[in-house]
Amino acid sequence: MLIIISGASRGIGKAIALRLAQKKCKIAILARNEEELLQTQTEMQAIGAEVLALACDITQEEAVKNAAQNIITTFGTPTILINNAGVGKFRTMADFSVEEFDNMMNVNIKGSFLLTKYFLPAMQQAQQGHIIAIASDVSKRTFFSGSLYCATKYAQDAMFSALRKEVRKDNIKVSVVYPGMVNTYFESNTFVNRPERLDADDIAQAVEYIISVPKNVVIDEITIHPLQQEY
What we know:
- The chain is α/β, with parallel strands linked by helices.
- The longest helix has 29 residues, at about 100-125.
- Strand 1 (about 1-5), helix 1 and strand 2 (about 25-30) form a beta-alpha-beta unit.
- It has 6 helices and 9 strands.
- The chain is globular, with a radius of gyration of 17 Å.
- Helix 1 (about 10-20) packs parallel to helix 2 (about 35-45), helix 1 packs across helix 6 (about 200-210) and helix 4 packs parallel to helix 5 (about 145-165).
- It is about 45% helix and about 20% strand.
């Protein structure tokens, strides 16, 4: 089994990587921050996983294409692709810059598209595979100051929901995870632990469950909220 995880240097991506490393399988991890990514690799290897860590900006087509070729050459056919990398900024519409708009769209939508585009053909050739997107509960609702972030997550949800219909004939599963509020570095570079929120490993456990079901079963969608969250 070969698992690819984007945004694996911290937060939900790292939690998923560490939990799935316990399966002692082959895992390729991607992120822009090479130093943090290599730390994740070291922790995964200590658990027993065979890990390839590649610093990669998933918004750049050539970088993603080269990473995919490297991973497939090194490890073979991908089994599971977890599109986790994402960014978010929150303010009113008029206060956003065009650069912030482009960055959120590029990471949250284009990045997921590029990773899927360059790993999907190998899955189709093998007639098996599983693509997972870590979206957000705001893929299905909106909130004040979330206009651009919600737009990216609505688009991500639509993209993978449509993809599910495209690849079913190839025996490829597509699942989307919709987390509520999670303790991560998402909103800043400083980690703040808020007891009313989910832990990143709560999402990792959900991903582990999604990939553990029988071959003839697909978990299309799963929403996870902390008990105290109002939405």
